[in-house]
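User: Here's a structure from my thesis project, written as structure tokens. My advisor, Dr. K., wants to see whether a designed sequence matches the one we expressed. Can you design one independently, without my sequence as a hint?
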């Protein structure tokens, strides 16, 4: 009986202790902010994250977008043991990623968790370690930017073979995932999936493992913004098993790549692994960097292309206009210069990046007590104090839908908006991040997307949506449509 009263006493005391802790923590932040002049410490608001978490309701980006519409472009919440600043203000994003990039980074918890599952590399390091990773991979990327388009055509032909006959409904999204897995594997390792001899069961196991790493990994990142202790204790057995499957796939890739290396002429060693072996001989370092890039880069291109074709299948006006531009190639394979000069194609990709940003939100941790320029004061127009250890979540999804930047039709897919000379979004448009940590592979990603879209339109006359459901963003690391990209395509008729 005594133990029961003890437990009840603890349960009753916990809310009191928690509220007291938050009041003390807030008072300490106010005290520390006074040395930073005219800045404000926001009182946290309740946004219902924990309730949704407990009820297993999705924390998708549309939920966060509604929060910004309700509470303004910058606000502070306190879902657990730590305050969390949430912003969709371009000036704050500029400050975090560029102006004060030395005062913000991915955070030690995220660094630790990332290296457990993805190894040490460009996406899981900060400060001097990150600079070292960037310097290590940059020469290979400079070389790969000029590797030609032949490898894309080879993989595109494989993609083409998997698209069903005219008028049959299918989901393009998984085909694009397989396609980009091949292209990025060749760029990183100099070999592709077919070289491994994996059967369908092996590939299914890999895809499920990668999906688990993304879903569970995102949960770990969320936890790191709530409580350092909770994030460190988070070790899902399913996540650990999935990481082993993922790393075995990488090990097989590396083994096949090293085997092939000795038979390649010096000028043909264009992949990250081959180039790094040639420059440094450090296979392990190259493997870890390639693992980071494979995990981060494999899905992004596939998701954006999937979202483009999801939109084209519902918008015959866009398809017709884009086909007219593509037809100017007269059936010839596009060159780098052709892709660069296709204005409407580039507008469509820009608009897809705006409305469906592949990475809809991201985080940075304040490494020191500092401020961001907007969010303080009664109108949110003065500096806001950010205490050391506080995470700032910036929401690209909400920022890209800002009507004050993109007009009243900000929610519409309108490629022509990019022809308006008055549209200068600046830091309100950051599909590849910004500042020193700008995506190192954005040029290659742009080339792959442009080439693939052009080749699809050169091979198909018509497209039709086979799914009436609206776009539903996933709660994954990348913003794919939960229902895929279901459509039917009609092949180009040969003229006799």
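Assistant: Designed independently from the structure alone:
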């Amino acid at each position: 009986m005594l133990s029961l009263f003890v437990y009840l006493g603890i349960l009753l005391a916990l809310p009191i202790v928690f509220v007291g802790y938050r009041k003390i923590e807030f008072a300490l932040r106010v005290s520390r902010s006074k040395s930073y002049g005219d800045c404000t410490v926001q009182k946290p608001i309740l946004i219902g994250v924990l309730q949704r978490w407990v009820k297993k309701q999705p924390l998708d980006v549309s939920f966060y977008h509604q929060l910004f519409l309700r509470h303004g472009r910058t606000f502070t919440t306190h879902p657990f043991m730590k305050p969390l600043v949430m912003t969709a203000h371009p000036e704050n994003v500029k400050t975090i990623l560029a102006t004060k990039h030395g005062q913000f980074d991915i955070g030690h918890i995220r660094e630790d968790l990332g290296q457990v599952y993805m190894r040490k590399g460009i996406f899981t390091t900060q400060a001097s370690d990150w600079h070292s990773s960037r310097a290590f991979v940059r020469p290979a990327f400079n070389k790969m930017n000029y590797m030609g388009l032949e490898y894309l055509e080879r993989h595109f032909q494989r993609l083409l073979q998997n698209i069903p006959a005219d008028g049959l409904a299918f989901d393009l999204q998984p085909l694009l995932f397989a396609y980009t897995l091949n292209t990025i594997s060749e760029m990183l390792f100099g070999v592709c999936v077919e070289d491994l001899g994996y059967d369908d069961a092996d590939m299914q196991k890999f895809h499920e493992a990668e999906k688990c790493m993304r879903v569970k990994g995102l949960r770990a990142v969320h936890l790191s913004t709530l409580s350092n202790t909770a994030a460190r204790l988070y070790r899902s057995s399913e996540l650990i098993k999935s990481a082993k499957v993922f790393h075995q796939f990488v090990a097989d890739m590396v083994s096949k790549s090293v085997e092939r290396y000795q038979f390649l002429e010096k000028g043909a060693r264009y992949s990250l692994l081959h180039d790094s072996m040639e420059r440094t001989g450090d296979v392990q370092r190259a493997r870890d960097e390639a693992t980071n890039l494979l995990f981060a880069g494999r899905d992004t291109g596939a998701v954006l292309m999937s979202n483009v074709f999801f939109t084209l299948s519902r918008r015959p006006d866009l398809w017709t206009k884009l086909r007219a531009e593509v037809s100017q190639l007269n059936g010839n394979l596009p060159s780098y210069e052709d892709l660069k000069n296709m204005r409407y194609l580039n507008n469509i990709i820009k608009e897809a990046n705006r409305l469906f940003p592949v990475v809809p939100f991201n985080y940075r941790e304040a490494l020191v007590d500092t401020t961001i320029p907007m969010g303080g004061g009664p109108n949110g127009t003065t500096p806001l104090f950010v205490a050391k250890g506080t995470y700032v979540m910036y929401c690209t999804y909400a920022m890209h839908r800002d009507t004050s930047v993109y007009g009243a039709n900000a929610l519409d897919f309108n490629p022509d908006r990019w022809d308006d000379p008055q549209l200068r979004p600046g830091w309100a448009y950051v599909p590849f991040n910004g500042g020193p940590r700008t995506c190192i592979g954005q040029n290659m990603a742009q080339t792959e997307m442009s080439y693939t879209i052009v080749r699809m339109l050169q091979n198909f006359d018509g497209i039709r949506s086979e799914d009436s459901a609206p776009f539903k963003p996933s709660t994954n690391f990348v913003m794919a449509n939960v229902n895929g990209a279901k459509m039917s395509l009609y092949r180009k008729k040969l003229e006799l």
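When you compare it with your expressed construct, this may help: DSSP finds 19 helices and ten strands in the chain.
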